[in-house]
């Protein structure tokens, strides 16, 4: 029997970015995607994930709000944040809400996959 694939939830406000990530990672992971924080919170209430990847800058609610909630409610879930704004204060903000890793856009999908595996391994 094969091992269960790592399940990830990707959250971004840009459907095109979500489509790229989902297509690029779906061969190696079980990938679900949500446009925005509110739908992601609803999905997190319905099922569990091994790793959550989320954008910092979103128009409805900052990704750090979701990150803080994920960390409080699901402490064993890996949490990776990504953003186009690779500034030291963004990295600090991500660390302050409990992110396990931080990836700057543009990102390489192979690098993202490696980071997912590392964060997952650190939690399990």
List the helices and strands and how they pair.
Layout: E1 7-12, H1 15-25, E2 30-35, H2 37-46, E3 51-55, H3 63-73, E4 78-83, H4 88-96, E5 101-104, H5 109-123
Parallel strand pairs: 1-2, 1-3, 3-4, 4-5
In which order are the strands of the major sheet placed?
2-1-3-4-5
Determine the strand fraction and express it as a percent band: 15-25%
- The Cα radius of gyration reads 13 Å
The total number of structural domains is 1
Helical percent range?
40-55%
CATH superfamily: Response regulator
Q: Given the helix and strand composition, which structural class is it? A: alpha/beta
Show unreliable segments: none
Largest sheet: 5 strands, parallel
Query: What's the pLDDT, averaged over the residues?
Result: 87
Distance between the termini: 19 Å
The ordered string of helix (H) and strand (E) elements is EHEHEHEHEH
**What's the number of helices?**
5
The CATH class name reads Alpha Beta
What is the CATH-assigned architecture?
Answer: 3-Layer(aba) Sandwich
In CATH, the topology is named Rossmann fold
Strand segment count: 5
Q: Choose one word for the global shape.
A: globular
């Amino acid at each position: 029997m094969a091992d269960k694939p790592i399940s990830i939830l990707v959250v971004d406000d840009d459907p095109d970015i979500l489509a790229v990530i989902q297509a690029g990672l779906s061969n190696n992971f079980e990938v679900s995607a949500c446009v925005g924080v509110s739908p992601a919170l609803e999905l997190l209430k319905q099922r569990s994930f091994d790793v959550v990847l989320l954008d910092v800058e979103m128009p409805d609610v900052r990704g750090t709000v979701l990150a803080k909630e994920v960390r409080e409610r699901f402490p064993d879930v890996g949490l990776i944040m990504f953003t186009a704004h690779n500034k030291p204060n963004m990295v600090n903000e991500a660390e302050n809400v409990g992110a396990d890793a931080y990836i700057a856009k543009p990102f390489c999908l192979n690098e993202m996959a490696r980071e997912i595996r590392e964060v997952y391994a650190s939690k399990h």
